[in-house]
Amino acid sequence: AGILVTILTVTVAVWWMAEKQNKQAQENTGTMVTGGIVAMEDNVKAFANDYAWWEAGYNAYMAGDEKWVDENFGSGIRDTQISDILVIIDPKGEIPYAWSIDDHRGTPREIFSPEIRAKIAKLAEGMPVVNEAARPAYFRVGDDIMLIAVARIAPVSRASEVDPATLPFLVQGIYLNHQRLFDLGRQFLEIDHAANASAAVEDGFPPIRDFDGNIIGAFVWTPPTPGFAVLRNVVAPIAGGLLVFCLIAMWTVLRARRLALSQALSERQAVEAARTDSLTGLTNRFGFNELSASASFEEACAKGEAAIIYLDINGFKSVNDSIGHQGGDELVGMLADRLSMILPPDARFARVGGDEFAVALTGRAALGAVAGVASAMVHALDQSFTVGGFQFEVTAAVGYAISDGGDVTPAELLGRADLAMYQAKNAAERDAVPYHPGLETGALHRKRLGMALRGAIEANELSVVYQPIVRASDLAIVSVEALVRWDSKEFGRVSPVDFIPVAEETGAIHDIGKFVFQRACQDMVDWPGLKMSINVSPAQLRDPSFANDLGAIARRHDVVPNRFKLELTEGLLVRNPTIAKRKLARLKSMGFGISLDDFGTGFSSIGYLRQFPFDWLKIDKSFISELGSNPTANALIQSMIALGDAMDIAVVAEGIETVEQLQLLRLLQCEFVQGYYLAKPMPAAGITALLAELGESRRILPALDLGGYEPSRPVLTIQS
Ligand code: C2E
Ligand code: MG
Ligand code: MG
Q1: For the chain, the helix, strand and coil percentages under 3-state DSSP, each to the nearest 5
Q2: Strand, coil or helix: what is 391?
Q3: pLDDT of residue 221
Q4: Which DSSP category does 186 fall into?
Q5: How many angstroms separate the alpha carbon of residue 467 from the centre of ligand 2?
Q6: Is the minimum distance from the CB of 675 to ligand 1 under 6 angstroms?
Q7: What is the pLDDT of residues 554-578, one digit of tens each?
């Protein structure tokens, strides 16, 4: 297009300049021709004047000296050849004398018909009798146009005295034939283009008018075209220039095209590489995400014709650890090859993580095969792999989801397959796990809780309540346990039993723990002498800065650490005893007391109790609830209390809901008790009010009649 535009522009510009030059030349020649016509008329007029303003001529004519008149006037035709025709018209309108060069257009008397003569007379009206008074006129003679000049033959010496009406006319005429106009052109236009007296009137050419002003023809000539002459000269160089330009432009365009193509190709290759896993040659996570987000996959999902299989290799880390990463890579390659072989040809197989694979299937036929394929993937690993001379047994957790109901988004489908795989991994399934809605409820709810929990502190949804812990002997409040509460805008009140594990998973537990501790520090300032139990999750204890953070917060609120007891469950102690021991020792050295929460529910053994520096031991409420009804529970509680005594660890019983439970625990010499029967968890203001009400003694049930207790059947078998 650029080339065409350039050629067109140059051509039009050059043509336009030539045309402009031609037009200018035409205007110039027009001016010159007009000047030439005036000069031609002047010539004819001068000739007529010359012969008419002639004393001797007048006298001879008046004297009727025909010989003299013919010799002297007729010589104008015979000798000069300047005129074509010459006539003398007398005052009566007759033609006494007439001369012409040839008569083939008619004799002078025929040409100067009475009608013409009358017009001549009219033309001469008012013509003064002076020298150079001749008047010109044109009229048509057949195909020709004749230019005439009319003058009165007058006596020069008495011109003013004679009556003009008595004087004869001398009429001199020429035909505007080709030769004359050609001469005129040559004379005035300095060009070879002769003017022509055309019968037709042409636009832009000077018209020729007769006596009455009617147009009877025009002076026509072929205007010169100097523009075209120039054009002819420049056409060759311009065409040459354009040709060179075209060649260069074409070459540039072709080169640019070649470059663009090769760039597009390398771009395609780069894009392809970005989507490919270099180790296995399979699609990588990026490529798989792209595939699953594609319009075609979305459509397949919506139509219920898509399926996703996720596969996670179990114990891959240990392979890496034992034969190194290179061996691990080799194993991944072998795995990929083996799994590829059992997949249907149109399945899209991707490596989406170090030891994670995914398969996307679409189409009705493929869907029928999904369950079989997923199962085959599990069993494809039944046979061991040999890498670097070692044999490895690996297993895979495989989960899959089918959009068979339709109306599923790709993201949902991926989430479902992931959930199924998660289930397969957790349940250590030996076969592929299909997705079913049952998987959803627990996991999804936890996910939503986790999301909501993130903003809970900022949104002021968390609060802390305190439950008194009471000395069994006199029921005086000695301590309180801080318990976190979450009033979620989205879910209402959520139990810590539900959200603490989620907070541990998401890491929110660290902020929640600090929040509770800080709030406890603030509140306990009003409760001098009261101790405070704080629940601590294993995840918190794993945080390297945990002890320092607690110390700093306590210092900031001016509370000494030994007013606190940190309640821990056994989880961490069992999993990582060495680290736990170090951490607890550090906390103890700072002054914090340590309490073992939910004692009896985990792996508690005397060994642990001896290893760790506990101050308190909290018997889990599941034992207390069976107290009095289950002899085994009684015996167990009794031995736990004995154990505490023996190891010099104070024992707390939690979950006391009835007076019977309380009485029995007192009989069993349990040192501290906690439970709804004594006091429910309450806000800080509740504790403050309670303490004020109880006064100095802080005894929670001052009226309790301990002596009136009658157990329905013997429970303290050990005592008997
Ligand atoms: P826990 O430490 O064993 O706390 C005792 C739980 O028993 C509390 O439940 C308390 O309200 C409840 N309870 C007290 N007396 C009775 C009773 O007489 N009968 C019955 N049935 N229950 C009683 P809560 O507050 O729902 O807390 C549940 C668990 O959540 C706690 O068990 C503790 O493990 C955890 N938790 C609570 N607050 C925090 C916290 O701030 N941080 C951490 N890490 N965990 C916390
Ligand atoms: Mg507790
Ligand atoms: Mg407990």
Answers
A1: 50, 20, 30
A2: strand
A3: 74
A4: I
A5: 10
A6: yes
A7: 999 999 999 999 999 887 677 778 8
